[in-house]
Amino acid sequence: MMKTIQQNVRKCSKLSMLLIAFAAASPLLSGCSSMLDVDSRHIVNEENKWKDINDARSSLMGVYGLLRTALAQDNGYWMYGELRSGDFSAVNKRDLDVIIAGELNSSYPLIQKLSNWRKFYAVINAANLFIENSSRIVPLDAQYTALNNKIDIAQMRVIKGFCYYLLARTWGDVPIWDKSYEGNFPNIKASPEKEVLAYAENQIKSIKDELPFIYGSETDPIYPTLNYHGSNRDQWNGVLFNRLSANTILAHIAAWSGNYLEASVYADYVLTNASKSGATFNLSSNITAANGFFYNSSNSQLVAFPFKWAAGEASYEGHLEQLTLASPLVSKAIPDIYIPNDHIIQVFTEDNDVRYNIAKDGTIASTYFSNIGGQYPIFSKIKVIREGVSGADGSLPLFSSAIVFSRLEEIALLRAEALVVLGQQDLAKGLLDQVRKSRGLNDSPSDVDLLDEIFAERRRELLGEGWRWYDLVRYKKLKRNDPEFNKLIDGKGIFWPIAQEVLNNNSQLNQNSFWK
Predict the structure, then answer these.
(1) Can you spell out the DSSP letters for 247-275?
(2) What is the mean pLDDT of residues 267-296?
(3) CB atoms near residue 464 (< 10 Å)
(4) pTM of the full predicted structure?
(5) Average pLDDT value for residue range 221-248
């Protein structure tokens, strides 16, 4: 099916390219009432589109839907960020073994799919299409105001910036598209990673102050209105990129670029203004509850992509649970990936850690794992089965957990990382200890490497959330004390190879030299 779609996409208009890419992921996006569904009434030709506010809403949601699909497809979000050199081991899955080992020039179909960046460029092309055309609606429909359009376009620029950040940290040098393209994806040479990150930053930085803190709220200082595109804040919280989302992404672009001063500034803005969006820190019990943080959507998910059960968005694919859960949580004998018992002990080393600890009498307590002591401990930190009811029958393994890129604990630890690099040790330690105390730990020791402690806490707190590989790269770049990893960094082996299909379709591209 995917091959046929890719062949047909060459023959299609700009709008059709967007919709075909969207339809390719339909198993992930089922549900006629979904906030991220494309209304079938708007699958029309380019000339008949952009007539009223419904066109704007369906196109806006279509771009968000494409981005969610790009992250969920083939479980890519975790394949890229969690598996390579991470804490998980695979069970009888050779294609997952090679990802964990970093053998990314393998011929396994999964590796070839993950090496293809086409899904992200479908998002970028759709965002460019919206930016270029949506203003045509303003004089045609009084309901669609210039301010509404301005905010919609601002979201598209954040999505573009986010996509280029994802592309740069995954592949390094990639092409930059600053306009939409018809039919075939264009032959454009790759820009250096540094330029791609600068472009991503500029896209978001130029409009971040145009975004509201809350959509569909009469108290928002930027866009005070009871409804935004026909829905109030209850429907939009955690669904759309707001001002905190933009600054969160900017903080990560800056950190990946090694610009820790700006990373600290952006992260501080998020922490200082969190209450304006209703974002809060989370208890560990809420993070791990079946109907807690990862269930549904909320503005505490600073950058996230929900799969709402009530909107019919639950799916089997595109969720970490597909890989990590097993009996008795779901009807599956063993998980695809797990963390060995001896490895868990290496990660969680301190007493009273509510996420995992071993008492003096040998009793193990954990909110992250079940089947502890068994051959395959089950990583059950995230376990949103269907409607998020604790103990739900796992015979129908549909999942409705959100893909969460960042939350306040994550951005606090990112700022702590930046502050250490900037020499502000006390402030950094304060942020680290704030997170540690919320997980049952004492203040961090004063006689240890603070940067080591921060990355160790990120490893524990963000386990299973797609950060391990990218954290490892940033840490190794800062330390430069691992000769083998230095070779990966200097030789661009930290990036994925480019899929042969992409190279065949663009004569301007060359394979990453590390993977030739």
Answers:
(1) HHHHHHHHHHHT-HHHHHHHHHHHHHHHH
(2) 96
(3) 23
(4) 0.92
(5) 95
